[in-house]
Write a structure and sequence with these properties.
Length: 454
């Protein structure tokens, strides 16, 4: 397929990507809302800064990572096509469930804008429902790409959908510090949560007809976009249910290495972006505030989005999954080390460069490793290895955020020295694990065989 035809195909299939991208951006923007202005939210809800209140606010992000591993296994059956003849019905069903849960979560979060522990409880309930919604949204891109795009556009389509996460987190990092100030937090925080509702939810706008119709239209667009039968559904496994496919997947040694590597890498990115204020504000308190943290976090995510799409384009041309994933894992480890060294040296420029570099590598590896897994373990449905990889990443995130957050040494200027050193060692271990993953690209081989036999 020529570049021109490929461009036309991506353009022609954008109606399948746009609704999913929109909802993934909203969901992940909510995940990171509280981290950039950690101490402002602590004062707003608890009026006292200590280890318990600090980690209570961090839990608003960690709940995403905590819910996922327990819920993912139960969602696979919703993505199965039944009846079998209705191809694509499972994909449509899963996306709709995620979108509806996301809408309900936004309304409940807004009701939690009360400056008290009770308000925190309501907010936490909304975050929990949003976390449940993302269980349905996260594993979709690889299967969406395989079902709706030709083989030479699968990686770029996956990268665009996965980049919605990065863009959502980046918007969240930048928006919160711009909107929330300590002196006006009693007005700013309710306004922030209301604005976030307006991006996605329709229930709160029943009296506002235009916005109500607009948000209903988004859900309608999802239904219409995925009502058609996917043109490339021949790549999908037929005849095995999700439980049988899961058992087959867990017998693969390469998958164990892969989930270990990605668990550390995604866990590291979750930990750094969640704890960025704790990592950087104490050693740079004279030159850095919440607004700086938000902008830096947004830059990390923007760099990751650009890198993700670039890597997707490269992989469509070369199919060099193993080389790309190993190099990105190595670069993630080196930039994690560089961040610690820069903080020790009090180099603000070094901190900025290494943070952006870490975002570049750690976020770009996601679509690459998802499609690498889909290739190695074909004909298992793409939803299943992607879902489990996210499970490993979320478990890694919960563990690292908790351990790093609780082991902060407030008596030292670089209070996160020991946690950052441990994270760096783990990141280098992930490079070794990623290097062990090898095998035949089975899906590409099958597609080539299918083409040559026609």
């Amino acid at each position: 397929m020529s570049a021109n035809k490929g461009s036309q195909s991506v353009q022609g299939r954008r109606e399948e990507l746009e609704p999913l991208v929109s909802h993934r951006k909203d969901n992940w923007r909510w995940w990171i809302t509280f981290a950039p202005c950690l101490y402002i939210f602590i004062h707003y809800y608890f009026q006292d800064v200590n280890a318990y209140t600090t980690n209570a606010i961090n839990l608003l992000s960690s709940i995403y990572m905590l819910i996922y591993p327990f819920a993912i296994q139960f969602t696979f059956k919703y993505f199965e096509d039944y009846p079998i003849s209705d191809r694509g019905s499972g994909l449509r069903r899963g996306i709709l469930i995620g979108a509806i849960l996301n809408a309900a979560a936004g309304c409940i979060r807004w009701l939690g804008a009360i400056a008290s522990p009770f308000g925190y409880f309501i907010l936490f309930l909304g975050q929990t429902i949003a976390a449940l919604a993302q269980v349905f949204m996260l594993p979709i891109p690889p299967q969406l790409a395989v079902a709706w795009f030709p083989k030479d556009e699968i990686n770029i389509a996956t990268s665009i959908a996965v980049s919605a996460n990065n863009l959502g987190i980046g918007v969240g990092c930048a928006l919160t510090p711009l909107m929330v100030q300590q002196s006006t937090s009693e007005r700013d925080i309710p306004n922030l949560l209301l604005i976030q509702v307006q991006f996605t939810d329709f229930l709160v706008f029943i009296t506002h007809t235009k916005k109500f119709i607009m948000c209903l239209s988004v859900l309608g667009l999802i239904w219409i976009s995925f009502k058609k039968s996917p043109p490339y559904w021949r790549h999908m496994m037929i005849g095995m249910n999700s439980a049988e496919q899961s058992i087959k997947l867990w017998k693969q040694k390469e998958f164990i290495y892969m989930i270990g590597a990605y668990g550390i890498i995604m866990g590291g990115q979750c930990a750094i972006i969640t704890l960025l204020a704790q990592i950087l504000i104490p050693p740079f308190r004279l030159v850095m505030n919440e607004k700086y943290i938000g902008v830096l976090g947004a830059m990390m995510l923007l760099g990751g989005s650009i890198a993700s799409i670039s890597v997707g384009y490269y992989l469509d041309k070369t199919l060099k999954y193993r080389k790309s994933c190993t190099l990105l894992a190595l670069f993630s480890a080196l930039t994690s080390l560089g961040l610690s060294v820069s903080i020790e040296a009090s180099s603000l420029a070094g901190v900025v460069i290494t943070c952006i570099g870490f975002g570049f590598a750690s976020y770009a590896i996601a679509p690459a490793i998802f499609q690498f897994a889909s290739e190695l373990f074909y004909p298992i449905s793409e939803i299943i290895p992607t879902g489990y990889l996210f499970t490993g990443g979320n478990i890694g995130g919960v563990i690292l955020v908790a351990l790093m957050g609780w082991s902060e040494d407030r008596d030292n200027q670089f209070s996160m020295r020991w946690p950052m050193n441990c994270l760096t060692m783990a990141m280098f271990a992930s490079v070794y694990m990623m290097y062990q993953v090898k095998g035949t690209l089975k899906r590409t081989a099958q597609a080539t065989l299918h083409t040559s036999s026609r």
